[in-house]
# Entry
Amino acid sequence: MKDNKFLTMAIESSCDETSVALLTEGRNVLSNVISSQIKVHQAFGGVVPEIASRHHLDNINTVLKQALDEADARLDDVDLIGVTYGPGLVGALLIGLATAKAISFSKKIPLVGVHHIQGHISANYIEHKDLKPPFMALVVSGGHTNIVDVKGYNEYEVLGRTRDDAVGEAFDKVARVLGLGYPGGPLIDKISKKGNPHSVEFKRVYLEKDSLDFSFSGTKTGVLNYLNSQKLKGEEIDTAGVAASFQLAVIEVIVNKAIYAAEKMRKNKLVLAGGVAANSLLRDMLNKECKRKGIELFCPSPVLCTDNAAMIGCAAYYKYKEGMVDDLTLDAYPNLPL
Ligand code: KG4
Ligand code: ZN
# Structure
């Protein structure tokens, strides 16, 4: 297929999705194959790291071949390899990394390691072809909750982070105690549509004045305490009402802090990223607030919200364009800072 377009191949394996993508010119996706292990981990109510690594190992070559076939490309056509090198589960990261390094070495293709969160933010460049920094980013996923001042393609300042649970993690834990299943985020989102979000007033945690940090464990514990007290009193639990009330308590804080950050830093663009970006209440509330404040809101489509390799390829492309290249000593960092 090789024409003169710059072809990036990317690999993502930081958690429970094995994904390989091919993109031209950094933003045009030719293929983005995602093999999800959700069904495997469902029985355990969460991701089991050792099992995740084994499944990545089983899947990676098939996913890679499918991505090349769908893009009508060969390894010899590839100009750049991007790979997630952190943060994430170390055993899972190593499978993608070893694959990327082997291809880079054998085919003499430049290698670029990508921070997973930089990938999530970059999903928006794929979705919105004219988007470019500077902007404010709200990153909400199973592992992260960050407000990031994006000053350039490779220049980030984290203004706020969670001090305990990530928002997706809190959704998953509350869904578990409500008996909804795993992963809990989409299930809470769905059942909340049938519940009254004001049936229980759970705590909104804003921390110190002007703080852009988050804390969700208090709200999560509030749900646990409420459920226990209802049980002790022998009263029935309105699952949809509790789910909707929890969701509103958490999303309200996230929306208010993101808008506050954009206004404070005089940014007229707000970019949403990460798995929880698929949440319908978050999207609705952000949409309304951004319109009211004259801020332009950018959201990726659902397939680009969850973990995928296309977003990693896009981030790798912009790192490469600014001369950031790695060598075969590139390692996996489970707690890599942005
Ligand atoms: O970005 P992601 O795929 O993986 C990480 O990098 O962590 O995010 C997965 C998280 C899970 O916690 C999942 O429950 C949550 O995103 N999630 C949602 C929704 N869809 C996925 N949370 C709330 N509402 C949703 N619609
Ligand atoms: Zn992610």
User: Anything to note?
Assistant: The two ends are 36 Å apart (CA to CA).
